[in-house]
Structure formats: C-alpha cells, structure tokens
Design goal:
With about 400 residues, the protein is an alpha/beta fold. The protein contains 13 helices and 14 strands. Bound molecules: iron/sulfur cluster.
C-alpha cells in the first residue's frame, strides 16, 4: 500500500445543482484538471473520487457528484449514485453559482446534510460576490488562486474541528511494546504473492503504535506461541477461528481481522446484538449476505459458501440466502431476518455506520462475518474481551 487507502481517508464531497461549477471547484482543490468541465448541464455523469492531501490536516478523498435537479433521462440513476456518496460523506461542500443561487435546492440539501449528520460549508462559485443572505458562504473563483487557497484553509480548519482522532485498529486497545500474532491462512482463497488489506493495515498499525507484529499461518501457530516469550493478542482470519481458538491459551487475548476493522468503523455492540438473532432463525428465514466490493468468488468463498453452510449446520434450519456486493446498499431490507456484512475494508466508517443505521431503521438485525463466525463457534465473549465488551 503506497498511499493511505480511500477507506481510511476523510471523505469530502461536492454537491450542488447542475452547472454550479462543482467540477471546476473539484479540479481547483486538487490542483489538476481531473474532472471534465463544460457549460453543458449534467456533464458529470458518475461521481469521481480522488485522493487529496490536506496539509496539515492529513489524507482526504474528494468526490465530485452529478448535479442535483438533473432532468435528463439519466437524472434519476445519477441521483441514486449521489445518494450513495452522501452515505459515506464525512464533510460536504455545497457549491452554488452566486449569480444563479437556487435557495430552495440548497435548503433541501441542507436538511439532508442535517439528517445524515454531515457538517457542510456553502461555497459560491462563478463570482467573487457572495449572496448577502448567506454571509457564512465562501466566495470562490477558480481563476483566483487566493480564493481557492482560502477555501482550502477553511476546509482544513473545519475538518480539524470535527476530527475524532486518527483511526487506529489497536492504538486504544493495547499498550506500546505489546506483541501481536497475526494468523494468515494461505489457502486457495489467499491472493497469490500478497497479503490482503486488513492484514497489511494491522501490521502498519502495530508499527505506528510501537507494537511488535509476528505473522504466521495457523499451521505454525502452536510453534510460534511456544517460541515467543510473550504474545498479548492473537488476531486471526475468521475462517480459521475455531482451530485458532483451540490452540491459543485462555490467558492470551484473541480476536479476528474483521472484528478489529468493525470495531474501528462500526458500532460493535450493535454487531454483537445482531449476531444473537442467529438463535431466532427458523425454516425459511431470509438472510442477506452483504459485501462492499465485488471480488472474484470461488467454490470456497466465505460469504457465499462457508458462512451459509456454517449457519445452516448450526441452526439445523432451511435458511434462504441472498447476496449483495458493491457500494450500492439501497433497497428494501425489511423482508430479511438478518444481514451479515463483510469486514467492509473498502468502506469508510461513515458508510459502515450508515449501513447499520439503515438496517436498524428497518428493524433488521445486522452483524458481520467475524462476529457471526465467533458466535456460532461459541467464542464470541472471548473474542470481544479485547474491546472491553
Ligand atoms: S468483501 Fe468486504 S472485507 Fe472482503 S475485501 Fe471486499 S470489502 Fe474487504
């Protein structure tokens, strides 16, 4: 990983009516012409996201969205994508053309920001004169580098005010000097020649927090435990939870990669409560297996094969499984008895929490892969001890 992954960046998104100058603003903030700029309405069809370093704030991701009020035939589809972006936005910029300010559209969007608890700033483009009614609005002319710099400094200031500290998987859970053993199975599911993102992230997290990381397969875990003087925590791939829990002595903390990721990005208590719904499943219960990326699947895929098989065996019931993959998490989930989500390593915290909220609003319990596997193996209490739960 050469750069901070998008899932760990603060997501800033630009919203506004078509032709409000969003793409020009996007390019100006990035300092390069990445989005197509045109006077023609609706030029931005799909959201465009780019990594952005806001020094001294830190890594961010900037997204240019399709314009609101798009009455073209594709308008509705574009609005669905804009809604998906809203669900992962940490901070919003509302762009409005100062000489054509659609106050009603702004007030409507302001309500949406408030509903989603997204702080925002109003930026007037295409003119140096902001509307008198909105003195807090920031006037930006993309041809005036000073006004773009001013916007950048306002963004950094506002983001620093809302930032809840750097996201760390282990920083608040273990002390400096701790030793962590990472258990990484090298089976047919493991990508050739590399580790997957949560594994790489955890190694980096150990280094950032002055901890020692030891990486082993489950087949060498016993030997590793015997050779190491002190192991404070074992973090395993959920797929080998049962084997690993039998090998790790009770006085060593144990959890999984997906539980550590979930603890950083989600409401962990909610995921644990969600797992308890497994005991209420009956014949015909409907379960949605949700993944936030569309990776290749295989005959031993954890979400499509292993967990469904594990749940059917544990409950002894005829369960019905549906599968959903990708960044679109819209739809009516009210017909489901349980949603089991992947670790969500490709999503930021805002998006994961919004997925939990959406399920809660529909009254559908939601848990994740690691928590569900720990639950059916009877080791959930042990694996959540590290989180003080
Ligand atoms: S399925 Fe989920 S946890 Fe697995 S790689 Fe994709 S986003 Fe990450």
């Amino acid at each position: 990983m050469e750069k901070t992954p998008l899932s760990l960046r603060t997501h800033i998104s630009i919203f506004g009516n078509t032709n409000a100058g969003k793409s020009s603003l996007f390019n100006a903030l990035l300092g390069q012409p990445l989005a197509i700029v045109s006077d023609k309405k609706g030029t931005t069809a799909d959201p465009v996201t780019k990594a952005l370093e806001l020094i001294p704030y830190g890594p961010a991701a900037l997204t240019d969205t399709a314009g609101l009020g798009d009455d073209s035939p594709l308008g509705e589809k574009r609005m669905e994508k804009t809604e998906q972006i809203l669900n992962k936005t940490d901070f919003a910029i509302y762009a409005a053309a100062a000489d054509d300010f659609d106050i009603k559209a702004y007030e409507e969007m302001k309500l949406r920001f408030e509903e989603k608890k997204i702080p925002h700033i109003l930026v007037f483009t295409k003119s140096d004169i902001a509307r008198k009614e909105y003195p807090d609005g920031i006037a930006v002319s993309v041809n005036d580098s000073q006004s773009v710099e001013h916007l950048r400094s306002v963004l950094i200031k506002r983001l620093s005010e809302i930032k809840g500290g750097e996201q760390s998987m282990l920083g608040s859970l273990l002390s400096k000097g701790s030793t962590v053993a990472l258990v990484v199975p090298i089976d047919s599911e493991a990508p050739k020649g590399r580790l997957i993102m949560p594994q790489v992230q955890l190694i980096r997290d150990c280094l950032d927090n002055g901890m020692c990381a030891v990486v082993t397969r489950e087949t060498e875990l016993e030997k590793t435990l015997a050779e190491q003087k002190k192991i404070d925590l074992v973090v395993t791939d959920s797929q080998v939870f049962k084997t690993v829990s039998e090998l790790v002595p009770d006085d060593i903390l144990l959890t999984s990669f997906s539980m550590l990721t979930a603890n950083m990005k989600c409401d962990m208590t909610g995921l644990i409560e969600g797992a308890k719904a497994i005991d209420s499943l009956c014949d015909g219960s409907r379960i949605l297996m949700a993944e936030s990326c569309t990776h290749n699947t295989s005959h031993e895929d954890i979400g499509r094969v292993k967990i469904p098989r594990m749940l059917s065996k544990y409950t002894g019931r005829k369960l019905e499984f549906d599968f959903k993959a990708g960044c679109d998490f819209s739809g009516d989930f009210s017909g489901y008895d349980l949603v089991i989500h992947c670790g969500g390593c490709m999503l930021n915290s805002k998006a994961m929490r919004n997925r939990q909220l959406l399920c809660a609003e529909k009254g559908v319990p939601m848990t994740n892969y690691g928590v569900a596997i720990a639950f059916v193996n009877g080791i959930l209490d042990r694996c959540t001890k590290i989180f003080g739960l």
